[in-house]
Design a protein that fits this description.
The chain is of the alpha/beta class. Helix 4 links the parallel strand 9 and strand 10. The longest helix has 14 residues. It folds into two domains: 150 residues, Medium-chain alcohol dehydrogenases, catalytic domain (Quinone Oxidoreductase, Chain A, domain 1), CATH 3.90.180; 150 residues, 3-Layer(aba) Sandwich (Rossmann fold). 26% of the residues lie in helices and 26% in strands. It has nine helices and 15 strands. Bound molecules: NADPH dihydro-nicotinamide-adenine-dinucleotide phosphate and ligand LHD4SSLZ.
Length: 329
């Protein structure tokens, strides 16, 4: 019998999650039945969506939702061999049993030298979010100017680099000097620390006096309300996330955006990356190619130890990560 460790949601979050909202439990796993396989998590992802989704999808006592890169340690399923690596959506667990239907093998051309954890970030769901959000929602064109916030994160850092590959001018913002330096290092044309600028309005104008054709919004809230006034006519806004609101006990009431929407004839579209699940391979192959060619750089914020998952999650929500936040078991 294998003993799995799991993190459960002990108490629904009120404001920022606290370590006391989680409980670490042990589960004895049964022996495998025909067609099943036993897997051990190697890397686990902590993502912003877990905060709002926990309230929507979970009840207290449930195992925290999430994805992992896992290794097959025992198999009674001929489609999966021991030692293979997969991406799974089995939540915050060290070990789990699967019938194989919910597993996605890492691309067969995954280079040995490339960290498999990238399957949770740049060459995974966040990377796909950047890829499809830019191509299908922003519909960026060469020569345009793209704005992205939370730009040093898992999604934002890929947005900026893909926009550069697409021939755009790219402006990004993040919450520390270290992150701003990273943005410039990976090719952003302009980058600023939204926490230290005296005026966000001025910073946006200085970074691109002519305004922005595309705004890839990861943050929402006040930033979005100010940024919308800097959009060019016929600009496009991809509403990817609203992380400035996820931990609010009382929803913010942002100022109205109808006036700039009308006068600038803007398009604003929310999206969830699973919309393009049927094009997942296309996106992953493109992202993997750009990473291997060195055109897309990556950075991972690695927290060691399964017991540190809550702190990694809370740290990411507080902006302590540069690049994709992951936990190495
Ligand atoms: N629509 C979709 O399908 C998907 C949407 N998303 C969304 O994309 C966004 C980024 O996700 P992801 O790249 O995984 O996360 P990141 O790796 O960017 O980590 C979150 C970052 O958000 C920033 N942040 C946190 N709180 C605030 C705040 N109050 N105001 C401004 N910035 C804040 C912090 O960076 P900083 O230093 O810049 O403050 C923090 O590091 C999230 O909103 C997420 O929900 C992600 C995946 C799929
Ligand atoms: C205050 C309300 C916020 C609404 C928007 C919330 C989150 C946006 C976001 O981050 C969406 C992320 C979607 C990620 C999808 C991941 C899938 O690969 C797996 C998700 C978990 C599951 O469905 O099993």
């Amino acid at each position: 019998m294998v003993t799995a460790k799991v993190w459960v949601l002990k108490k629904h979050f009120e404001g920022f999650p606290k370590p006391s909202d989680f409980d670490l439990k042990k589960i004895e796993l049964p022996n495998l039945k025909d067609g099943e396989l036993l897997l051990e998590s190697v890397f686990l992802s902590v993502d912003p969506y877990m905060r709002p989704y926990s309230r929507r999808d979970m009840k207290e006592g449930d195992i925290m939702i999430g994805t992992q890169v896992a290794r097959i340690v025992e198999s009674k399923n001929p489609a999966f061999t021991v030692g293979a690596f997969v991406v799974a959506r089995s939540g915050w667990r060290t070990h789990f049993i699967s019938d194989g239907k919910d597993l996605q093998l890492l691309p067969s051309n995954w280079p040995e030298s490339l960290p498999k954890s990238l399957a949770l970030g740049t060459v995974g769901m966040p990377g796909l979010t950047a890829y499809f959000g830019l191509l299908e929602v922003c519909k960026m064109k060469p020569g345009e100017t793209v704005l992205v916030n939370a730009a040093a994160g898992a999604v934002g850092s890929v947005v900026g680099q893909l926009a550069k590959i697409g021939g755009c001018k790219v402006v990004g913002c993040a919450g520390s000097g270290e992150k701003v330096a990273y943005l410039k290092k990976i090719g952003f044309d302009e980058a600023f620390n939204y926490k230290t600028v005296t005026s966000l309005d001025e910073a946006l104008r200085k970074a691109s006096p002519d305004g922005y054709d595309c705004f890839f919004d990861n943050v929402g809230g006040e930033f979005a309300s100010i940024a919308i006034n800097h959009m060019k006519k016929y600009g496009r806004i991809a509403v990817c996330g609203a992380i400035s609101q996820y931990n609010d006990s009382v929803p913010q009431q942002g100022p109205y955006v109808q006036v700039p929407m009308i006068f600038k004839e803007l398009q604003m579209e929310g999206f969830i990356v699973t919309r393009w699940s049927n094009r997942r391979e296309e996106g992953l192959n493109a992202l993997l190619k750009w990473v291997v060619e060195g055109k897309v750089k990556y950075h991972e914020q690695v927290t060691e130890g399964f017991e540190n998952m809550p702190m990694a999650f809370i740290g990411m929500l507080k902006g302590e990560n540069l690049g994709k936040a992951i936990v190495k078991v």
